Amino acid sequence: MNWAQMYDCHGDVDRVPELLARVELEDDAEAWDELGYRLVLEHDLVFPASFAALPRLVRLASRSARARGLAGAIVRCAAGGHGCDDLLAGCADAIAAFRELLDRHLRSRPDDYFASFLDLLAVEEQYHWSAAMGDFSDDFYEVACPHCAVEVTIAIGGYGRYSAIRDWNLGDVDRRGLRPASLEGLSGIGRWMHETAVRDGEAVLADGIAHLFGDAECPRCASVFNIADEYAASNRPVM
Prior knowledge:
Structural class: alpha+beta
Low-confidence stretches: none
Number of domains: 2
Strand order of the largest sheet: 1-2-3-4
Distance between the termini: 26 Å
Number of helices: 11
Order of helices and strands: HHHHHHHHEEEEHHEEH
Strand content: 5-15%
């Protein structure tokens, strides 16, 4: 790795390899903190040093939660306009190893299950859902009805599971219950997400995914549409 060309978020080319060497020797909290703000800038910006560091972070990730979290943060930024596509391609083996590590980690039902689940979605190049999906404790998604174009609020969480028209004075009005997808009705990434959550005993997450990939009724025109399809179509990031 030619670190002389691998500038970090602050334009430096020598600091990241020094910090990596420190955390490889011992779990240095101060070094980890500095690595975090040098490799992933606010607003989810990454730079050449971020991808240059990724293989070494993945090698540390099996024994370091800090390494696992920082590697996940970098992968989640891979969809952005970072201008490092060649470096990202060179991380293919490291990302494949990270995929296996995250899957094993999820099977252990860790305390950071949801964050690791989102990281695995990013590894699977499902950047949209990695960024947009909540843990279904109190989730709201705004979608446009594909038939009448009215803005529909979708609630999946502690407030209920419904579609509604949001009135800023009256709240969510004209609520209609959602229609969760059956196991047979799930396919693609929705099925994989649901099966993974069920496998790992994450009942709330599995139920939320079934509702997110199910159908909603528009309170204005009574047409029925698939929530995930409409939300993804409106909010998928530009690659």
